[in-house]
Description:
Helices cover about 35% and strands about 5% of the residues. By secondary structure, it is mainly alpha-helical.
Amino acid sequence: xxxxxxxxxxxxxxxxxxxxxxxxxxxxxxxxxxxxxxxxxxxxxxxxxxxxxxxxxxxxxxxxxxxxxxxxxxxxxxxxxxxxxxxxxxxxxxxxxxxxxxxxxxxxx
Length: 109
């Protein structure tokens, strides 16, 4: 599961996870999958940010995401900005082609 591989103190973009899962055009699908996952799944959802390193959750969710990232040592700037050059996750890339992401594809994300 990709989200579980993001280490503490690092962040990844929704689009990055979509690309790693096989379809770079499915960033919104990744967001919906994470949103729909139960808290009991224990996913580090807070390590996933929007394009350009911005926290994209509104209100309380965004504040909680920023709090969790800061607790892991990630600097969160004005407007929920995370510097992906400093804190971005750089996984080893797979060359295998994968089918498009479906809404029930939590195991790949």
